Amino acid sequence: MDTLPLMTDCRSLSKITAIDGPTVIPTSFLEGLILVKEFRIPSTIKEINDFAFRLTSISTINIPASVIGITEGALRDIQIDELTVAEGNSVYHMENGALFQTNHRTLITRVDTTESYTIDKDVTAIYAYAFANHGSMKKLFFEDNEDGVNIGVGAFFSCTNLEEVKLPNNLVTIPDGDFCADLSLKKFTIPATVQTIGIEALSFSNQTAINRINIPAAVTNIGNTAFYASLIDTIDVSWLTPLHLEYDANNQPVFNPKYISNMTLLVPQGTFAAYKAADQWKDFGTIVEKKITDLKETKSIDDILKVSVVNDAMILTTEEPRNVRIVNLAGQTEYTATVNRTVTVSVPNGVHIVQVGNTAIKVIVP
Fold this sequence. Notes:
This protein is mostly beta strands. It is built from two helices and 30 strands. A five-stranded mixed sheet has the order 6-7-8-10-12, with no helix packed on it. The protein has a five-stranded mixed sheet with strand order 22-30-29-26-27, with no helix packed on it. Strands 9-11-13-15 form a four-stranded parallel sheet, with no helix packed on it. Strand 6 and strand 7 (98-101) form a beta hairpin.
């Protein structure tokens, strides 16, 4: 395939015209040419590769009908004001101010400047850095998707005016850098299904207005520096055994040593000593035990789950689907599933912890 030549050494270049014929725009094609304000993509181009227009002043892009491949980093680090797709392109289209890969319902980037954006339930994937540096967005909502959505790294990096986020309720991973440098966040909840929090994923800012973050019991891995830039008053955890936390190559921990002494850690009842001895967790300025409610009759968790004990079983009842986990006092999972309506769960005699989201109750099966 014919490839356009790299132009990155032409630093003084302010205008470039490409004739039709080439089929590939190579990686870093115009990267760093800040004087370039306009470029017409030839009508013969089939592939656009990483950083093709990075750090240029190009603000208007038209994707020709011939284009069948756009890599994840192709439109990264460029402030696009107008993005269009030529009529006849069967692979890509514009929808509500965002560029989509049509067949796979993949969201590539968004250029719309409205303050609120909802990612609908049909979206299956979001490109890395798709919304990065989006300055106008204040609210981001996900419709719940039964099949889940695959979010790329840094997808919402440095959305400096973003204030409120609602993630899908079946999200498993918050990827590296996803909400890093989001300075204005006020409302943010980690879904109960999340198992992995990536490197710098929630490293918001020391200016964040978020006062409390609940880390769900389902989380089994927190990347180094995941909360490094975040100064949050309270971190609430539910593990009966402190989760092991890693350091990065420069020996930087999950939480910033400058902030952690001013932060409070809420831990399950009876685990104070374990957290006070655990690496990184022990550095919190204040560690407080939460009381777990004893259950001797039918009770509810925040009115979203009712638990009854009958013989050697628990009866779990919900009005709508809820992710429920039952563990023993050793922290071993005895049951985990999405409960819809009524489910009967057989468990051994003894004490069990029933968890829904970040709330837990102690259940005694005599």
